[in-house]
Amino acid sequence: MPYYNTNLDNIQLYYEDRGQGEPVVFIHGWSGSGKTLMPMAEILKNRYRCITYDHRGLGASTRATKGLTMAQLARDLKELIAYLGLKEVTLVGHSMGAATVYSYLGQFGCENLKRCVFIDMSPKTLNDQEWTFGYHEEELYDLPKLLADMELMNENFGAFQLRFMSGLVPAMKSIPDILAPNLAAGLLGVNDIQVLKSFWFSMFIADHRPAMEKLTVPSLYIYPEQGLYPMGAPDFIKAAAKAPVELVSIPNAGHLIPMVNPPLVAQHLADFLART
Predict the structure, then answer these.
(1) Would you list the DSSP string of 90-123?
(2) Buried (b) or exposed (e) across 56-86, using 16+ Cβ within 10 A?
(3) 256, 227 Cβ separation under 8 angstroms
(4) Model pLDDT for residues 215-263, shown as the tens digit of each residue
(5) β-strands 89-94, 23-27: how paired?
């Protein structure tokens, strides 16, 4: 099993490297792992060198007690790219993975990048009086709701995660209450609660809007019409970027579209790579 040891704290990041050609790095979301985007990598590996990896503290990577921020995830990504000797890289980020790319842009600009692909992620996830293009549940998700969720995580993380996942998979709302604890434990998997709490908080307090002006390579935003963020988020990115940003809308699709229909998302990605 291949690992890379980070410079900051010697954390082992698990990665998989498949195929040949232009490098494409897939960056997974909150509570996931590289496995969640692996089906797309498998589809594209005959034409591209496809790398998936697990964020620090998640999946098969080493459990971490520090560096559990979007800023450090971006630094981990930069180190992994350097370690693998990648040049002219395409970054494909889903959800928190896209937030990692936003943080990369903020810190390093488009250094060593050829393209960026963002899948359903606002550059600012927390809503306020001036910004309403962040995370939506039944209502706008703002600071009081974030703080209430942090308290719920401390009290009953399973209840929080079950509610969150029920918003992504509506069928889960019909699960009998008696089965909810077992399901919540299954959703947590091998991940550590403290790691997930830290990433959730960092993801929501970060404001990556200024970084969009550093987006100087062709980019693609994949917008599932039933996703977690309104159309104003990709519109903002397109308006702020210094290079063309294509918007692809997928009807009747939700936030988990890369896992629910990998061939469809991979086809949009392949088309974008071919024409840029």
Answers:
(1) EEEEETHHHHHHHHHHHHHTTTTEEEEEEES--S
(2) bbbbbbbebeebbbbebbbbbbebbbeebeb
(3) no
(4) 999 999 999 999 999 999 999 999 999 999 999 999 999 999 999 999 9
(5) parallel
